[in-house]
C-alpha cells in the first residue's frame, strides 16, 4: 500500500536542498565504554560515551522526545544535531518544535512554506491542537537539508497549555502513530515545562533523551522531576516509554562533570550516556541560522552527537 506521504509533497519545495555528508572516520571521536568510570584517578580519567550492555538500539520508525524541565539544558541543540547526524545517514527525519519560546527551534532552523501558500494557510503546531481539520501532514514543511522536515511553533503555542483542548494528551500520539508517512525518526523538542505539551510528547514517544548541563546541579534536579512525570505517563498512557539516553551538554572535563555523569549513569543504568563536549561556536551557528554540523562540521560537539546517533539508532542492528 503506498504511503500518503506528507513529505513526498514537501520535497517539491526543496529543490535546492543540501545533502548532509557523513563525517570522516579519522576525527577525534570519544571512546565507547560499558560503564561510567568513577574508580580511575582523576588525572588518568578519560571522557567516554557509556553504552551499557543492556542498551538496545532503537528500531525504526521511532519517536523521540527530547526533554528536561530546566531551561537552557541543551534540548534544542541536542534535537537539531541528532537530526543532522541521522539525515547524513540517509534517514528521513522530522523535528517537531514543541517549545513556545521565542528563542526556540523555529527561530534557529530555516524552513520553507510551499510556494504560493497564502499566509492564512501557513499552519503550525498550535493549529494541530485546535483545528480538527489540520493534520501533521498540513504542518510539516521543508528545510534546506535533504531528508529533514520541520513542524514549527510560535509563542501562541502556550494556548495549548492554558486552554488544554480536548484530546491534548493523546493527539500527537494519534497523528504520529496512526497516520501513514515515511518518516524514520521524529524528534520532539520539548519546552522547559512539564505541562500538557510535554506530556503530549511523552505519550506519543517511544523513547526519551534527557539533556543535562554537565556542570549544573539544577539540571539534575530537573531530570528528577521529569522522572516523576515519565513514571506517571508510563502508568497511565504509554507503558512502553523508555529513557534511551542522557546527553551531558556543554561538557568540559572536571570533577563535578565526572560526578554528575556517574550519578546519571547510575540512575539510568540501561541508557546511553553521551558527553557532548562544549563548543563556543554554537551561538555563532544559531545567529547564522545553521546547524553546528553545517557551520563547523569538525567541532567536537558535532562528533559527539554523530556518535550518539550511530549508537542510539544503528549500532548493533
TrEMBL record:
SUPFAM superfamilies (UniProt xref): P-loop containing nucleoside triphosphate hydrolases
Source species, domain of life: Bacteria
Transmembrane annotation, as ranges: none
InterPro entries referenced in this protein's UniProt entry, alphabetically: AAA_dom (IPR025669), DNA_Partitioning_ATPase (IPR050678), P-loop_NTPase (IPR027417)
Domain AAA: 62-243
PANTHER family: P-LOOP CONTAINING NUCLEOSIDE TRIPHOSPHATE HYDROLASE (PTHR13696), PARA FAMILY PROTEIN CT_582 (PTHR13696:SF52)
Protein name: Partitioning protein para
Organism, as annotated: Streptomyces rubradiris (Streptomyces achromogenes subsp. rubradiris)
Amino acid at each position: 500500500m503506498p504511503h500518503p506521504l506528507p513529505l513526498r509533497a514537501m520535497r517539491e519545495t526543496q529543490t535546492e536542498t543540501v545533502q548532509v555528508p557523513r563525517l570522516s572516520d579519522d576525527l577525534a571521536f570519544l571512546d565507547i565504554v560499558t560503564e561510567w568510570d568513577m574508580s580511575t584517578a582523576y588525572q588518568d580519567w578519560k571522557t567516554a560515551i557509556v553504552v551499557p550492555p543492556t542498551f538496545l538500539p532503537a528500531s525504526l520508525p521511532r519517536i523521540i522526545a527530547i526533554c528536561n524541565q530546566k531551561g537552557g539544558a541543551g534540548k534544542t541543540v541536542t534535537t537539531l544535531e541528532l537530526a543532522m547526524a541521522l539525515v547524513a545517514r540517509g534517514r528521513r527525519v522530522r523535528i517537531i518544535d514543541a517549545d513556545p519560546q521565542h528563542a526556540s527551534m523555529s527561530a534557529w532552523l530555516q524552513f520553507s512554506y510551499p510556494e504560493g501558500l497564502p499566509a492564512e494557510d501557513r499552519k503550525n503546531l498550535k493549529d494541530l491542537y485546535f483545528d480538527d481539520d489540520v493534520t501533521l501532514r498540513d504542518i510539516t514543511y521543508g528545510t534546506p537539508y535533504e531528508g529533514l522536515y520541520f513542524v514549527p511553533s510560535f509563542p501562541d503555542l502556550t494556548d495549548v497549555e492554558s486552554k488544554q483542548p480536548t484530546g491534548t494528551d493523546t493527539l500527537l500520539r494519534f497523528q504520529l502513530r496512526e497516520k501513514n508517512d515515511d518518516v524514520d525518526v521524529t524528534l520532539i523538542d520539548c519546552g522547559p515545562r512539564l505541562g500538557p505539551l510535554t506530556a503530549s510528547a511523552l505519550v506519543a514517544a517511544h523513547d526519551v533523551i534527557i539533556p543535562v548541563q554537565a556542570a549544573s546541579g539544577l539540571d539534575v534536579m530537573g531530570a528528577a522531576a521529569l522522572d516523576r512525570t515519565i513514571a506517571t505517563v508510563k502508568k497511565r498512557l504509554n507503558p512502553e516509554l523508555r529513557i534511551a539516553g542522557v546527553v551531558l551538554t556543554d561538557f568540559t572535563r572536571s570533577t563535578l562533570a565526572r560526578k554528575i555523569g556517574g550519578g546519571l549513569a547510575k540512575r539510568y543504568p540501561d541508557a546511553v550516556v553521551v558527553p557532548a563536549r562544549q563548543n563556543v561556536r554554537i551561538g555563532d551557528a544559531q545567529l547564522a541560522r545553521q546547524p553546528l554540523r553545517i557551520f563547523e562540521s569538525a567541532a567536537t560537539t558535532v562528533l559527539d552527537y554523530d556518535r550518539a546517533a550511530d549508537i542510539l539508532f544503528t549500532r548493533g542492528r
